[in-house]
Structure formats: structure tokens, C-alpha cells
Model the fold of this input.
Amino acid sequence: MQPTTTIVDGRSCGTCTLCCRLPDIDLFDKPANDWCAHCVEGSGCSIYPDRPSVCRDFLCLWMTDNALGDEWEPGRSGMMLYEQGPQITVLVAPEHPEIWKSEPYLSQLRTWAGEAERRGRYVIVFCQDDVFKV
Done:
């Protein structure tokens, strides 16, 4: 995985709003898996032009890493990936709790975990209240 802060050509958030739902966002006192109060499901952020930097600066790995195939598009996979220090974080939508254990995802997660471990990093999957180290 070689993410950058540049958006991969041809990719956009579209109607995906998983980053408004899956992570906890301290600034908004929003717990994980709850919708942000500013998010309109299926259409996006109601304060988009004035959104805070915590939102403005966030890009999931699918947006920045061209090695991630279309199967990892969050709206399709039901998962959102991002890097957090030495951790590759995978947040799984509650309505798809087993998706990360299916193919093509599980084999890719295992490959990334092996590569990450050699560099002192790791892959963590969060699914509702469960946490798994791949």
C-alpha cells in the first residue's frame, strides 16, 4: 500500500458517506457507527463548504492508493480503510459484519498484514464492538 494525499484519477466520494458514519469524530461528539448530525444519508454533508479541517483533510485509502481495486470502493465493499500511525485501519459497516472475511478481501488483508508486520506495522479491523488484528 502506497497512499498519497493526492486523489487517484477517476475516483471521487460520490454518494459514499461511510466516513461520516463509521469512525468516531471527537469534534462532533459522534460515536463510531452513528451518523454525523451534518450528514444527509445518500447525498452527503450539509455543511460541506464550511466543514472543519478534520473532515476536509480526511481521505480514505481507496481515494489515495491506486493499488486498491474497485472492489475496495467503500460504497461497494461496506468497508473504509485509512492509515493511522503504524496501523492500517479497516472500519466495517455494521450491516456487513462478515464482509471482511470473504474474498477478495480476506486474502488481501492477510497479504497487507504480512507486509505491514515486516515494517513494524499492523492491520486492525473494527466491526461494531469487535476488534481483530489480521
In short: Helices lie at 53-56, 61-64, 74-77, 105-118. The chain is about 20% helix and 20% strand. The longest helix spans residues 105-118. The longest strand covers residues 79-84.
